[in-house]
Amino acid sequence: KLVEKTKELREAVAETTEEYDNQRTEIETNVTAQKDMVTHLEALIAAQGGTEAGNKKISDMVSRLNAEVPGLSLAYDEQTRSLNLTTDAIGEMIDANQKAEEFDTHLEERAELLQQRAEAAAVAAEADEMLAQAEGKLQTMYEDGTEILGEASYEYGQQQQNVAALTETYNEAAEALAEIDDKLAESQEYI
To answer: How far is residue 20's CA from residue 134's CA, in Å, rounded to a whole number?
Structure first.
């Protein structure tokens, strides 16, 4: 039971880490695409601004950027063939949104890791208690070695296996705690 809990916990930590690494990669990919759109928009205005077809393409790209970048409110003036924001200002907004999204991602990951840490601590405590009981029973059995050799040998072997399994579970739970603590320390940099 505890072995399964520990394995599930370690898998959950790995999944959490992978999920949030993927989210951060997706944020970076989106930012790159948004900055590429701004560069393309600037070139499009210079090359085709003022024509009906060009203005339609520019208007479509402005709409896409507004949909992609929260709070952008970008507009194109067909008469002056200019945007209401400089490309530098648009880039700064994209960067600010990226930082905000990354911050939110780190906060969410940290909350999950803290919950997983609490679960790992509970498993470790339960395994430690069971280990102490098993070691005590093993010691008692060893000291009471006057029982029938066959029964005592069998029980002793069973307890040794139990102690070995619980020791492994405790060690895995302790490793999970250390791994979660490392992840929490990494996320602390962003908070």
So the answer is: 39
